[in-house]
Design brief:
binds oxa(dethia)-CoA, alpha/beta, Peroxisomal Thiolase, Chain A, domain 1, five-stranded mixed sheet
């Protein structure tokens, strides 16, 4: 099979920045607590009326421009999100229309929470490598501000909004592009990070809204421990699978949930923090958007050079996990 390569990337964050100082006027918290426990200083919040699809379109346009392609060149769109504009239909169909993609473009959403972009990369790469699709657009996008409980200090300080995108195609050059992926999930941990209402088990009711049960609930400490273990294992598995050693990795782009989680992975892999791309301080946790925003920033900042090996590694609600190795 030919190798799949990333032809371009793009990202977008809403203009509105919510600082820790401002949050501490909304709930009983402090800049000091948020910074020392999570590494987050600020996050972006979508403007009133700014939808998930709007943010996705901004990131997608930047990725298409970076790739030198037109919307009509795309024949596959995969959107990773847990906050689609609507429950039905898929955000990808709304984005297809807003972007002006062809009507014979295959469109679907994928929910793997914060691992969503790695899942989308794996899925779209396989579809492109099969030859049945030529150019894929993959987007990780979230409007988490719409499902955060702004009265719950244990979660509202952590999340933010944004979008990141990548365009995939094939290359005849051997040994470049997506070298491999490792995906998985611990389905026995669904009760650690969830939204109880608004799905088919518990449709929204006036009572559930009053109790804010349409919002994210999380057992942070438990998630933290499993996240470190899952990301470390996912990283080691993909390195072993591809016969690559940790010191050969030029840059790790981890899911940006908590600086302390990234520091723990750095210690476990015995890779210095300089080799990790970190922007959690400026975005908070943007779930499926976190890795593609970081990837786009890293490329544009010149942190990724031709021949470099990059490791993407993520975990999220599910609890899902995923890793990917890319040679540029
Ligand atoms: O993408 C996946 C998404 N999830 C994650 O990545 C989350 C992973 N978990 C974490 O990042 C961390 O567990 C948190 C940042 C959520 C919390 O850090 P922690 O060090 O595990 O703190 P904790 O939950 O043990 O809370 C310590 C104390 C508690 O008070 P007591 O019981 O010691 O009196 C909390 O009530 O801090 C309190 N606390 C706060 N205080 C000020 C919890 N949230 C806040 C807050 N401000 N925002």
């Amino acid at each position: 099979m030919p190798s799949t390569v990333i032809l371009g990337t793009g990202s977008y964050a809403p203009a509105r920045v919510l600082t820790n100082a401002e949050l501490s006027t909304m709930v009983d918290t402090s800049d000091e607590w948020i910074r020392t426990r999570s590494g987050i200083r600020e996050r972006h919040i979508a403007a009133p009326g700014e939808s998930t699809s709007d943010m996705a379109v901004h990131a997608a346009k930047a990725a298409l421009q970076d790739a030198g392609l037109a919307p009509t060149d795309i024949d596959l769109l995969v959107v990773a999100t847990v906050t689609p504009d609507l429950v039905l239909p898929a955000a990808s169909c709304i984005i297809q229309h807003k972007l002006g993609l062809r009507t014979d473009t295959a469109c679907f959403d994928l929910n793997a929470a914060c691992s969503g972009f790695v899942y989308a990369l794996d899925t779209a790469s396989a579809m492109v490598a099969s030859g049945r699709y030529k150019k894929a657009l993959i987007i990780g996008v979230e409007k988490l501000s719409s499902v955060v409980d702004w009265q719950d200090r244990t979660t509202c300080v952590l999340f933010g909004d944004g979008a990141g995108a990548a365009v995939l195609g094939v290359s005849d050059q051997p040994g470049v592009g997506l070298l491999g992926t490792k995906l998985g999930a611990y389905g026995d941990c669904v009760d650690l990070l969830y939204i109880t209402h608004g799905g088919s088990d518990n449709p929204t009711t006036p009572e559930s809204i009053a109790a804010r049960n349409h919002c994210i609930r999380m057992k942070g400490k438990e998630v933290f421990k499993i996240a470190v273990r899952a990301m470390d294992e996912a990283a080691r598995d993909i390195l072993e699978q591809q016969g690559v050693t940790a010191d050969q990795i030029a840059l790790v782009i981890p899911h940006q949930a908590n600086l302390r989680i990234i520091e723990a992975i750095s210690q476990y892999l015995k890779l210095p923090m300089e080799r990790f791309y970190v922007n959690v301080d400026r975005y908070g946790n943007t779930s499926a958007a976190s890795i593609p925003i970081a990837l786009d920033e890293a490329r544009r900042a010149g942190r990724i050079k031709s021949g470099d090996i990059t490791l993407l590694v993520a975990f999220g609600a599910g609890l899902t996990y995923g890793s990917a190795l890319i040679r540029w």
